[in-house]
Amino acid sequence: MSTESLTALTPAPGQSRALRSITVAHGGLDPRSGLLDYLVRNDAHTWIRHNGGMVGYGETKRFTVTGPDRFTRGQDWWRRELAGAHVVDELGVPGSGLIAFGSFAFSKTSAHESRLIVPEVVVGCTDGRGWLTYITDDPEAELTAEAAETALAAYLLEPDEQYPPSPGDRLAPGVLSEDEYQAVVAEGVRHVHDGELSKLVLARDVVAELERPVSTARVLRELAVRYEDCWTYAVDGLIGSTPEMLIKVENNTAQARVLAGTLDRAGAPAADPGYAERVLAGSEKQLHEHQIAIDSLTGTLEPFTSSMTSHSEPFVLQLPNVWHLASDVTANLTPDGDGHVPTSLALVQALHPTAAVCGTPTTVAGALIRELEHLQRGPYAGPVGWIDAAGNGEWGIALRGAVVETPTRVRLYAGCGIVEGSRPEAELAETWSKFRPMMEALGISR
Ligand SMILES: C=C(O[C@@H]1C=C(C(=O)O)C=C[C@H]1O)C(=O)O
């Protein structure tokens, strides 16, 4: 079974030159460090989990878009690019062949440009096996293993200097002060209490001001090593390590990891192994918040599926900074009359924004976020990931991350689900626990 035919459209008149690619096996990946050795350039596109995934260099093509139909238009562009493409793929694994890395704005009203970027070179690692893709739109370029290795070598020969944190690096307040954020949360709680909605996610930002240019590659390595159960991402200055999988499509299967319910590990009693289980899984408030998130995801995914499984009870996901209540959902996608299942981007279009990052009902929560938050979320809490020519892909939710605004200014984002009974000071503290992965990777403290 294949994903929805992405090659059904013919190239638009006047369209730029056709994409051509070759994917070959690539030796030399250290089994212990995997792709981490390839994080040497600050502009690398990155998708890493458990040392596997992909690191992309350079840019062969780019598509940018804003507005409510940004996912559909992104997918249409990708379809057109694939229409005239010539692909040699010896691997045939998800992510090999032609691929675009992407990052999408959280909001349909955002001026921030969503983007799909086709890199020139991708080093991949799937189940411990290394591979290499070279993508060009040069009609004359040779599609050989040597050409791919030469293109890769050119990037690796120019690594960026990586600086350790400087003593003068500091964390400055973002758009809202801590007091203002707590006032906003209190306002959100009032709206929930009044019955307008059952859950609202409110976020805030802080700004890392650095003495020397941010060493993105070093930061990503730190994140990938410490947060190996998370998906460490970098697309065009959006960096982070997310624990939440919006949707992953592999052939006819879709998977998601839904989180809601958070407990800070800092200050947790060391000699109490049942603490997280008791506080999170034993809390009506946390279970309620989690159930809202699960219902929203499964309800939206259902029309695309023939069957769906998830555990009846959430599990406690332990990360270095926090514990979360988590649920994994696996679904079999229903093929259309032609035997094609929806692409990963088609499912993103249906699923985003989930209750985990927006609220319930979505439209009420979205309007309140715009009214109360005072923050331009940009790509924060939007989908980040990749799509291949078959429509397979992984789209995480861009959480626990930051935007590199200038070489020395990095904006960090974190938010919390507000429900009836949420306390502003507890939510403020929770944002600090969610900033911690990026703060530690940057080597910056409060
Ligand atoms: C909004 C964020 O996280 C989300 C909110 C959570 C919560 O409120 O418990 C937990 C995980 C995420 O779904 C964030 O990290 O910025």
UniProtKB/TrEMBL annotation:
SUPFAM superfamilies xref list: ADC synthase
Domain of life of the organism encoding this protein: Bacteria
Residue ranges constituting the Chorismate-utilising enzyme C-terminal domain according to the UniProt record: 178-434
EC numbers, comma separated: 5.4.4.2
GO terms for MF: isochorismate synthase activity
Record's keyword terms, sorted: Isomerase
NCBIfam families: isochor_syn
Family listed: Belongs to the isochorismate synthase family.
Protein name: isochorismate synthase
Organism: Arthrobacter echini
